[in-house]
Amino acid sequence: MSVMTTKTFPLGGDLTINRLGFGAMRLAMGTFAGPPRSPEGGIAVLRHAVELGVNHIDTAGFYGRGEVRANELIRTALSPYPDDLVIATKVGPLRGPNGMPSEQATPDRLRGLVEADLSSLGLDRLDLVYLRVGGMGGPGGESIAERFAVLAELRAEGLIRHLGVSNVDAAQLAEAQEIAPVVAVQNQHTGDAGLLAECEAAGIAFVPYFPLGGGKSPVDAERLEKVAARLGATVAQVGIAALLASSPSVLAIPGTGTLDHLEENLAADALSLSDEDLSDLRG
Hints:
single chain
């Protein structure tokens, strides 16, 4: 018995995307501190992802290592882009002295970051741009109005189709919605049940980043392993399926730099979870 009532989501009401997409962070590097990956490998992964039905790619201008940059790989691999492909990017973070995206852009720098993404991706308009706030910390504790207003102006100019916010709490989401429509929230996980419910009620996509732990063992690894053994699936596949089962508004964007891992992740789209499976995962 499948708990997924639909495998697509109407992003912004006018873009139908598959709920299982692809995150581009790991195309250029395994981690922010790791060595660069082969550009040819990243290009092959992107092309195969689209062949397998991916039509939602999540990227950012700061995803890269050395000369290997995620946006350039996407443009090289997929341009001219398929008509149904939605590319989401995010602006706000700036790399600090340690190479991590730990600093935040001031409002006057956001236009330049959006224009840089347009150029590197080879687009006249970006489908979805998130304002990513908070540096390396958690959500909340600061106003996002001035920065979000800059993106709203760029949307009014036609450079951006839809807007999202990332690493935010309910108050920051409400602050953004007072300025312009928000179609997606990208936070680290679905642990804020109230915010997830608010997004579901409003038709806003909820997009967890690091959906499989970001290289760390998931906190419920033992539960995932139990269900995976019963289904003959991998822990990663069960983790993705469970994420999609948590809410019809949730989109999954697992990322990888290898073809085998890509195929493993996307095979989760066909995985069905029973009531027993879900009960075991909830503990």
